[in-house]
Amino acid sequence: MKMSKAVIDSTIRSEIFFDLFRYAETEGYAYDYQKINDRQFGTIVVDAEGNRRYVRIGVIVAELREDMTADELMAAEIADYNTKQAAKAERAAKRAEKAKRDKEKREAEAAEKKGE
Length: 116
Hints:
alpha+beta; 3 strands; three-stranded antiparallel beta sheet; single chain
């Protein structure tokens, strides 16, 4: 008998949440994680500004793909993330360099005006 996608995904999510939270009784956690629904657990945390924030932890089960294996999909998503992070870092470095050049230019112009 073939199981439905919903049943399979629900079983996988349950296994993952169990794996994440299995030490709660023995080790204890800093936060009280509560089951929100079949896909999420949540807790309340206090942010750096003293505000209470609701945090959700969710498990997404990727679709089966015919063009790549699960391992290939995971590797592709990691590579995509790393590429985007490298591009983001490069843009930030260029902005910082431009800001430095602009500051030096402003300082030079201000010094020139003082010298007049």
